[in-house]
Design a protein that fits this description.
about 200 residues; six-stranded mixed beta sheet; globular; Metallo-beta-lactamase, Chain A; 12 strands; alpha/beta
Length: about 200
């Protein structure tokens, strides 16, 4: 089920299928595959990297992001939680992502997560979020969930999110980069606690 999902470190993924979709590209390797669609969850430096976006952009690449990102980058398709759109032939749903007990990602900032449909599978990238009530409405086959705590859900909270959403597979993210909180131990704790299948991906280029 993960053959078309590539974890690029931290919260960054490449999703392949009918099109090539990146979410929050950051610290990409040289020669990274060009993107048809680039989804950015919010404007923090470890999610919005103009240099990495430029590295994988080609004629026709569409960048989708909330308004805070558009303020820092031109030529962005601006979205907000609740939006449904088709981008380069890819169905994208925009969902909320926010903190409930921290200051880093306030709900008023309208940061987002995404549900992308590729290869007939609905893939949910939660963005930087806590366990929020809206997760009860998420319908997906694969859930990419942050697990590090501090800025996002803890591993235990992420397991509760997975148990609420009930995807066929959950993949931990927001770990593995020395510049940001989150270690493999967080991913492993999430795997132990979740009541759904969990795969801890190895970082790829």
């Amino acid at each position: 089920m993960t053959a078309n999902i590539f974890w690029l470190g931290h919260d960054s993924f490449r999703l392949t299928g009918e099109k090539v979709v990146y979410v929050d590209p950051w610290k990409l390797a040289a020669g990274a595959e060009p993107a048809d669609v680039i989804l950015v969850t919010h404007d923090h430096y470890d999610h919005l990297s103009p240099d990495d976006i430029a590295k994988i952009s080609k004629p026709g690449t569409v960048v989708v992001a909330p308004s805070a990102v558009a303020a820092k980058m031109p030529a962005v398709t601006v979205v907000k939680p609740g939006d449904h759109l088709t981008v380069a032939g890819v169905a994208v749903e925009v969902v909320p992502a926010y903190n409930t007990n921290k200051k880093f990602h306030p709900q008023a900032a309208a940061h987002v997560g995404y549900i992308v449909t590729l290869n007939g599978k609905r893939i949910y990238h939660a963005g930087d979020t806590d366990l929020i009530p809206e997760m009860a409405q998420i319908k997906c086959d694969i859930a990419l969930l942050p697990v590090s705590g501090t800025y996002v859900m803890t591993a235990l909270e992420a397991a509760e999110a997975a148990n609420t959403i009930r995807p066929a597979l959950a993949i931990p993210m927001h770990w593995g980069d020395a510049a940001v909180v989150g270690a493999r131990a967080d991913a492993e704790e999430f795997q132990r606690r979740a009541q759904v299948p969990v795969e801890i991906l190895d970082k790829t280029g």
